[in-house]
Amino acid sequence: MNAQRTALVIGANGGIGSEACMALRRHGWKVRALVRTAPVESAQDGVEWISGDAMRADDVLRAAEGMEVIVHAVNPPGYRGWDQLVLPMLDNTIAAARAAGARIVLPGTIYNYGPDAFPRLTEDSFQHPPTRKGEIRAEMERRLQSASANGVRVLILRCGDFFGPRAGNNWLAQGLIRAGAPIRQVSYPGDYRIGHSWAYLPDVGEVLARLLDREAGLGAFESFHFGGYWLDGHAMLDAIRRATSNPRIKAGRFPWWLARMASPFNETMRELCKMRYLWRQPIRLDDAKLRAFLGDDLYTPLEEAMGRALVGAGCMAPTPATPALHHTA
């Protein structure tokens, strides 16, 4: 009998980290999670929770012992502290992966691309980000590619803007709608005619697990684009209306003027304003490579995904079509 595969998830309390834990468990992995604080229901989810800090090299090294995969899903909350935290945390993961002989999995974003790469992003598109946050993202990938040339296997799955039933810091729940209340208006951050890439977090976790199931077919440094849903503002508004069965939800606009006023005093708002360029042009992740590798059955139907996300955000009650999801493996 083959030994059970082992994976460490760093940042397992976050949206992508929690989905990665559950997807890997469904696929038969033994999952260990490195977090500062374990969730209340952790005793029932089949995950081995370890208290530690991704900024402490010894904590990461200890957690990674015996692991075949390290999912690096940790990010500073609310865009804060990227200059001081992001690269040191990644360096700790690289060192731990090298010691354990593990593959690093990085859930990537579109932040490391600039307008010269838009509108269609492939795995080989130029990375010329116009923001400091994007530069850090691009540097993360450079460090991972360098590590892969020295024996550390790497898998990157780049995604659009996340949303999902357990997502916290994301555009849908914190920008387009008001979490915890019935939806009366969608505050869209761009021109309603411009398309944008969205990634449903449970699908991202499932795709990561399916990719890792095919380790033998992966290169030492491998990257894929997760297409998800490509929606303009009208399609996003329509998806929210259909999920809530409320055609009267209004088409509003995100108050960028308010974010600019708050930016001198609020780091989250300041960093948010710097990323506004991502809403001024169409951006679409080309997932042809991913489909060729895994097939076409990758994404949950949009209305179902949106319904679950809105239930999770506290904007609507669970229904038979969109029941609440629980943190179980």
TrEMBL record:
It comes from the Bacteria. PANTHER family: NAD(P)-BINDING DOMAIN-CONTAINING PROTEIN-RELATED, PROTEIN YEEZ. It holds the Pfam family Epimerase. It comes from Dyella halodurans. Signal peptide: none annotated. This is NAD(P)H-binding protein. Residues 7-215 form the NAD-dependent epimerase/dehydratase domain. InterPro entries: Epimerase_deHydtase (IPR001509), NAD(P)-bd_dom_sf (IPR036291), NAD(P)-dependent_oxidoreduct (IPR051783).
